[in-house]
Amino acid sequence: MLLLLASLLSQPLLAETRLWYAAPLIVSVSLVFSATRHERPDEILTHALRFGGWVLVFMAVVTFVMQFMAWLQ
User: What stretches pass through the bilayer (predicted)?
Assistant: First the structure.
């Protein structure tokens, strides 16, 4: 048990590494969502950029709220 805990604590950048998985997910979800709504490629890209921006803002707000709640403890 202590060995497992020590191995987990020895990787301080694990959360930052996992955060990189969000970028391709945001891109793919926004492109697929936009392609289901529009036909023309320029409209798809415009809508995908707007939708991706909304997802990033939402993720940033949720992260801020979680960090604030952790700070209150």
Answer: 51-72
